[in-house]
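quick one
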Amino acid sequence: MDATAILSAIACDEQALGFMEHVTRHVSSVQDYVLQLLLEANAGTDYFQRHGLHGIPTKEEFRRLLPITTYSDMEADFQRLADGDESKTICAARVLEMLTRKAPYASRGKSLQFFYVRKPGITSGGVTTTSGLSGYFTSPAFRQRKLDPESGYTSPDQVILCVDYQQASYCHLLCGLTQSQEVVSIGAAFASTLVRSLKALKDLWQELCVDIETGRVNDNIVSDLSVKHAVNALLKPDPKLAALVRRECSKSNWRGIVRRLWPRARIIQAIVTGSMQQYVPAIDFFSDGLPIASSIYASSECSTLGVNLSPVCSPYDVRYSPFPCFVYYEFLPVSSSSSSSPSRDDLVQLAEVELGREYELVITTRAGLYRYRVGDVLKVVGFKNSMPQFSFVGRAGVLLSVDTDKTDEVELHTAVTTAAAVMAKRNRGDVRLLDYTSRVNLSSQPGHYVVYWELSLDAAMESMEAELRKCCSVMEESLSVVYRRNRREGSVGALEIKVVEPGTFDRIVDHVVFVGQGSIGQYKTPRCARDPAVLRILESSVVESSRAR
Ligand code: AMP
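structure w/ adenosine monophosphate:
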C-alpha cells in the first residue's frame, strides 16, 4: 500500500468512527428520524389507510394506531405481493424480490467461507422468493463487487451460487485446500454450517487429495459444468500439498486440523450465539481455539439488526449493537410478550430499554413491516454511549408443554447443556454432545418430554444407559419450578433421552433441504421436532435410551 492509499484508508476509518460516535450518542433523535423517513416513504399505502393513517402519518399516530404484528397478521399482504400486486400494499416501492427468512462479512488474505445458496422460488405473480443469504449472493451488489486477487473468497462465485449442496461443499473444501497458504479466515454464516462442512472433510479428504495431486476436479462428484470449469481454472497439480493433506487427515486425532491445514488462518467467522452456542466446543476442537468472530445479528426481515463491536470477544460474551439508523426498533418486555395478545402500550423505545431486562424485538422497516415481531428475545447487557447493547437469548415462545409446564428454547438449551457438561466431565471429555432436538410424547399417560441427542464418542462409555439416566435427572433439575412440581405431582412423566446414531442430524438437514423446506446456509436445528418425516428419521436412528427415575 502506498502512503496516499494508507492516508485515504485512515480518513475512511475516522469518518466511520465519527459516524458511530454520533449515532450512538443520539439514539432517540436518530430513531425519530428513521421513523419519519419510513413513514414519509410509505405514505398512502393500503396498510396505512386500513389503519386510519392518511397522508404522512405522525410519530404519535404511528404509536397510537398501528398494531403489533406477526407473520400471520401480514400473510395476506405478503400473498398479494407474491401474486404480483403492484399497488402500494405495504410499501410504496415496487417489490422485486421477497426474502424468506443472513449476511456475510469477512484482513489481508483469503477467506474460506462455506456459503451456500438455495434455488429461488417464484410465486404465481412472478415475484422471486429466496433466503436472505441467497438473495445477497445473487444480487448485483455481490456479483458486481470489486474483486481483489489477494483477498476475497477462496471459492469462485460459481461454487457459492451452486444450488447442489454436495457439489458446493466439495468444491469449497477443494478450493480452500489448494489456496491453503493464503487463507486467513474460515467461516460460514452459522456455526452449524461450519461444523457440518468441516465434518464433511472427514469423509472426502481422500478424493480431495487425488484432485489436488492431479489438478483436476473429480467428474463423478462435480457434474455442474460452470462449477467444474471455474474450479479447474484454479487448480494445478500439487503432489506436495496432496501429501501434506493426506498426512494430516489420516491422523486419528483431528484436534486442530484447521490450523494444520490452513496454517495462516487467524480467525473463525460464524454466528455462535443463541442456539449456535452449542457448536463452540466443536469449533474449538477443530481449530484448537482460534478466536471466533460472531459479527452480526441479522434476519431476512431487515438484513442487519445488530453488529458486534468487539468481534473477537469470547463467544459467551457477544453483545450486539442495534445501530439506531438500521431500522425502527421497539421492544416488548418478555413478561408481556408471553401474553397471547400483548398491548402496544407495552412497547418501549430503543432509548428506553433497561439494563438486565429481556425483550422481544419488534421492528418497523422501510419495506413495509410495521411493529412486526421478529420472534427473538434479546437481553440488555450494556450501553455504547446511549445505545443499548444486547445479548441474543433465543427464540420467543414455548417449545414443550405437557400440563401447565411451559419450557421455552432457552430453558431447554440450558438443561441440555448442563446435562451434557456433567456427562463430558464424568467421561473425561471423551464424549461430546453434537446436536439435539426434542418433542413431547403424549401417547402414554402422563405425557413426557423426549430429548434426542447425537453424541461424539472418542472412547466407549462403560454404561451408557446409567449415564443417560443421570443426564435425565440433571435436565429435570434444571427445568422450571412448574415442570418440577408437575413431575412431583405426577401430571408429567419422567423425561427421556434417546441417543441417535452418528450422522442422524446431517440426514435431517439433507431431508429438509431435499424437500425444499430450508437452505443449507440458513439451516438451524429446530429444537422441537414436529415434522413427521423428521420424527421418523429420529426414531429409526435411536441406539440407546433412558428415562429419569
Ligand atoms: P433468517 O430469517 O432465516 O435469516 O434467520 C433469522 C434468524 O436467525 C433471527 O431471527 C435469529 O433467530 C437467528 N439469528 C440471526 N443472527 C443471529 C445471531 N447473531 N445469534 C443468534 N441467532 C441469530
